[in-house]
Design a protein that fits this description.
Order of helices and strands of chain B: EEEHEHEHHHHEHEHEEH
CATH superfamily of chain B: P-loop containing nucleotide triphosphate hydrolases
Low-confidence stretches of chain A: 1-27
Structural class of chain A: mainly alpha
Number of domains of chain A: 2
Shape of chain B: globular
Helix content of chain A: over 70%
CATH topology of chain B: Rossmann fold
CATH architecture of chain B: 3-Layer(aba) Sandwich
Oligomer: heterodimer
Largest sheet of chain B: 6 strands, mixed
Helix content of chain B: 25-40%
Shape of chain A: globular
Strand content of chain B: 25-35%
Largest interface: A-B, 48 and 61 residues
Number of helices of chain A: 9
Distance between the termini of chain B: 34 Å
Radius of gyration of chain B: 18 Å
Distance between the termini of chain A: 22 Å
Number of strands of chain A: 0
Radius of gyration of chain A: 21 Å
Strand order of the largest sheet of chain B: 5-6-7-3-8-9
Number of helices of chain B: 9
Structural class of chain B: alpha/beta
Mean pLDDT of chain A: 81
Largest sheet of chain A: none
Low-confidence stretches of chain B: none
CATH class of chain B: Alpha Beta
Chain lengths: 225, 226
């Protein structure tokens, strides 16, 4: 088959950022952002091992001082990879409601030290994981996963399927966010802002529809072959 | 060569396709018809996304129901919703996903990815998040992900439905450059106007088949549109 090169060079289109959330636009969790830093160039396996060591360490030596040191390490990591504090904030922003609920609860249970240690550890783990995913292509992460899980083939586990599952989970997040946004706007347009039914029904129906289309596309792309 | 032999398909008690026999040998074939007429089911038979209740379809003498893997290597399918077709987070990774079983080196993979993105007008976007593309760009990426595997046949089910005029033109221009057999289901009659052959499907039957001009006129009249 021959496809002429530059068939459509006249029709390179502009980017359209569909979402209005500046943090999300800045650095969606799990989406690789290209760069030439040391972190970008490190092998995916090394970064995953580093993440494992880092999160284990902050869990074992959980304290406000450990959180402070960990935060310094993570911040240096983001800066050295060429990311602004806004990108770091975007990684942990989805945790805001958990933090709001967890901090007073932990403070009440074990005092401010416990609250800072537990919530800080959670934030550090998410921020560090975000740094790994921002500096590593998904295909490289999946290749590591394939290698790590390959011994499980003997007991009937298919590492490729697990990799695909992870890739799909990451991919589905922005699709679902867009879907929810569309339904929310439609609900507002019809004056039913407070109706849970007007929100849940179309979200479920559209999600099922999307799943069916995704399934067809996976079959068409030879996933089961 | 795609051959339908007395093919019927039922959804429960409802007939979707009824006793269809035809041979598709032309390079560019358009399928038009009203909503719910069975045209999408017709093309889904070709790569085994739907299976006949009676009769059979053959692609180069292979039955998709029995030789699904071989048929899908030859036949690629493009859907109207590119969001469902794009799997990986970035443009380059999604192209690489299509080539995962081709055992290419990293350099070969990069070259193939760059070449196909250049072809569809997305060169320079290799590292870009796929979900931040516009609908038109996503469809161009979806085209790239199927063409990069170098199929013999490309099926496109309403590929321009979600696109603006500019991206519709882009897709049509790209289709015009392809050397493989192309079967396009569409409501946009301009897309298939210069194809070699057009089929009109109505209530699960082929009601017109032949020259695009005559078939499009027939379809317009049957829809009460001048």
């Amino acid at each position: 088959m021959a496809i002429p090169a530059n068939a459509l060079t006249s029709i390179v289109a502009r980017w359209e950022f569909a979402d209005g959330n500046p943090l999300m636009g800045a650095a969606m969790i799990g989406v690789y952002r290209p760069g030439a830093s040391i972190l970008h160039r490190l092998p995916a396996g090394v970064k995953l091992l580093g993440l494992l060591v880092f999160t284990t360490a902050v869990l074992i030596w959980r304290s406000p001082i450990t959180v402070a040191i960990g935060l310094f390490v993570v911040a240096v990591g983001y800066l050295s990879a060429g990311y602004s504090p806004r990108v770091l904030l975007a990684q942990v922003w989805p945790l805001r409601w958990i933090v709001i609920l967890l901090v007073p609860f932990q403070w009440w249970l074990g005092g401010w030290r416990s609250a800072v240690a537990i919530v800080g550890t959670l934030i550090l783990a998410v921020a560090a994981a975000g740094l790994v995913s921002l500096t590593t292509r998904i295909v490289d992460l999946l290749a590591v996963l394939d290698r790590v899980l390959s011994p499980l083939r003997r007991v009937g586990v298919d590492p490729e399927r697990i990799s695909l599952l992870i890739a799909l989970s990451i991919r589905v997040v922005p699709v679902m966010l867009e879907l929810v946004d569309t339904v929310r706007e439609a609900r507002r347009a019809r004056g039913a802002e407070r109706s849970l039914r007007a929100f849940a029904t179309p979200v479920v129906v559209r999600t099922v529809g999307y799943s069916q289309r995704l399934g067809d596309a996976l079959i068409a792309r030879g996933i089961d072959d | 060569m795609i051959t339908f032999e007395h093919l019927s398909h039922r959804f429960g008690d409802r007939p979707v396709l009824s006793d269809i026999t035809c041979r598709l040998a032309e390079q560019r074939i358009g399928i038009i018809g009203a909503n719910g007429s069975g045209k999408s089911t017709f093309v889904r038979m070709i790569n085994g996304l739907a299976t006949p209740t009676e009769g059979r379809v053959l692609v180069d003498d292979l039955d998709p129901a029995r030789h699904g893997r071989e048929v899908r290597r030859r036949v690629s399918f493009l859907f109207s919703d590119p969001d469902a077709q794009i799997i990986m987070p970035t443009v380059g990774e999604d192209i690489a996903f299509s080539l995962r079983r081709h055992k290419l080196t990293a350099d070969q993979l990069d070259q193939r990815t760059a070449a196909i993105l250049d072809t569809v007008g997305l060169s320079g976007y290799v590292e870009h998040p796929a979900h931040l593309l516009s609908s038109g760009q996503k469809q161009l990426l979806a085209v790239a992900t199927v063409l990069v595997t170098e199929p013999d046949i490309l099926i496109a089910d309403e590929p321009t439905t979600l696109l603006d005029l500019r991206h519709t033109r882009a897709i049509c221009e790209l289709f015009a450059t392809l050397t493989q057999q192309l079967v396009v289901v569409t409501h946009d009659l301009n897309v298939v106007a210069d194809f070699e052959r057009v089929l009109v499907i109505d209530e699960g039957r082929i009601v017109a088949d032949g020259d695009p001009g005559e078939c499009i006129d027939f379809y317009r009249r049957s829809m009460g549109v001048r």
